[in-house]
Design a protein that fits this description.
6-PGluconate_DH-like_C_sf; NADP binding; six-stranded parallel β-sheet; elongated; Rossmann fold; HIBADH-related; N-(1-d-carboxylethyl)-l-norvaline Dehydrogenase, domain 2; binds nicotinamide-adenine-dinucleotide
Length: about 290
Amino acid sequence: MKKIGFIGLGIMGKPMAKNLIDAGYELIVNDLNEESVKELVDYGAASLSTAKEIAENSEVIITMLPNSPHVKAVALGENGLIEGVKSGQVFIDMSSISPLVSQEVAAALLEKGVEMLDAPVSGGQEGAEAGTVAFMVGGNEKVFKANKAILEVMGGSVTLVGDIGAGETTKLVNQIIVGINIAAVAEGLSFGKKAGVDPEKIFNAIRGGLAGSQCMEDKAPRMLAGNYDPGFKMKLHVKDLTNTFETSRELHTYMPLAAQVMEMMQKLISDGHTEVDHGGLGLFYEKLNNI
Ligand code: NAD
């Protein structure tokens, strides 16, 4: 079994790393948070203090970091992976970042003979713990096939969608559609409530029809209960939409609905709702419609 270096032991990375250990992989971990590192070492991992050392001591390197600057720093920065890698190694980045940055990091590592897969996920903390996240992967097909078994330990579905950057692009598509859907559910229910109809009855009446969706099933009950605890934090969704607009500016894509959703999310966060779930768009309509 391949020796794996794993960097980024947060909400998602920690359980995913544990699943790899449970499956019998030898893991060397790294994180800025010493407590998370200790938890993994107690679970059976080894640890090293820089990304460079992780690269020097593993065959496959995995990262699960917050955003593009973190991945760039870990991969290409001082004491980064690029200073320790050898030709033939594989780098798998599971973070949700800009596809443009994935392509930039992949090009730099390829000069050292290292292939990269961009492999962001959907499925959240529960999926990470259960090993059932959905992977959307970009990169070389041969490299994908050779490393698919590692991803299958952590994921319920593992799909190659195209060349490097395609995984991140697919994740952004997911976030565009989910964000707009949540806003649609919130707007519809707030209209019904303002018109004097019980929103719970509305939900039950329409959930089986064309308006129904996985998004509605997940978010409507929480909106009805006024429960906006995360879940998937709205500020992470804003991060993903920011990466979307960075790419869409390059492509000159028209995206009015995603732009509107982004405005609503920004407004809620700037009003102090910094830790709410992305379903907190319900709160936006409650406030504006006085319901
Ligand atoms: P998190 O903030 O909980 O964890 C990130 C970890 O990276 C932290 O432990 C942090 O200490 C570590 N880190 C940051 N910079 C580092 C560095 N330079 N060196 C080493 N470690 C460093 O984030 P998360 O919720 O685990 O999310 C990770 C990625 O997965 C994000 O891109 C997020 O958008 C994506 N994602 C999250 C969810 C979710 O529900 N939380 C779902 C799908 C995808």
